[in-house]
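To: structure desk
From: M.T.
Subject: fold request, one chain
Message: Could you run this one when you get a chance? Sequence is below, nothing fancy, just the single chain.
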Amino acid sequence: MKQTVSVLVTGAGSPGAPGVIRSLRKADDRRVRIVGADMDPDSSGFALVDAWRVVPRADKAGFVSALLALCREERIDVVMPLVTDELPRLAESISEFEAVGTKVLVSAPEGLRIANNKWLLMSACAGQGIPTPVFRRVGSWSVFQEAVYSLGYPGVPVCVKPPVSRGLRGFRILRDDIDRLDLLINHKPNDITTNLEELSGVLRDAQPFPELLIMEYLPGREYTVDVLADRGKALTVVPRLREKMRMGVSFACITDNNPEVIGYSSSIVSLLGLHGNIGLQFKLDESGIPKTIESNPRLQGTTVLCTAAGVNMPYDAVRMAVGEPVVGRQEHVRWGVKVIRYWGEVYAEAGRFYEL
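Reply: Done. Structure tokens follow.
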């Protein structure tokens, strides 16, 4: 066993990075040296790591070569990506990283292709009997209208989202019972509700028309699930109920032992052959049935709750990556543990990042 393991955490300025970094610091059998990487030179995560580097965006030609150089220079043992757009590039370059002695915590390209596309994910799940909302893919305004009405609008709300997106980008709930004056006067301007008439002004003449999904509106509570997976085998599965959200980010959630959600999560990981830290999302329908709505095949923003609840999934993934035996720790999860997030600050001065 190496006394020190070096981990490169990408997306060091992302909302989930502080929790991941603190989880790695909790390792009780060795020192974890953490190097942070981000495209933003003012990344807040740089104040929390042992060394840091600004790197190109994932869609730039120099992204992989920059990370490879960083891994060589810093003798990185494991790359832990936190940015969805980086995953396909890293998955296609695993052999290059292994050539410099670095393991990458990422699923195989085909599993990622499906997991990162809501249309492909829900189609694959539906084909295996894993519950999903009713959904239709549309590519024109006329088909969009037809799909919306076929799902019961305006009598019931209907959801719209792109098959590939991040956060709440492109997501809207269509409903016809909106009080626009109430929204204007009493709510902050980040509401995701609209109606067909308002959306027609944006989409009717769109050229080209964006590929969109029209989906059944699910009124029940939402689960985010953290899974530690070993090449399609779910080792540990921790569902958490999302209690408070702001702009799509969880600000309060609680671990909840839902056997159905755990079972469906394990089935999806197996179906797609996913590996490492995996995130899944479910929402309950009016009958309380959890239905698959999307996946995040990487560490999620509030995975640190699992660490607080007794299972350090980021560090378990690192141990798995370096070839140490890792077994499922489902029995160690403490249910009913809640995380409550808050805004924090770091400081920068003369090229140095620090906390108070």
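Reply (cont.): DSSP finds twelve helices and 18 strands in the chain. Let me know if you need anything else for the meeting.
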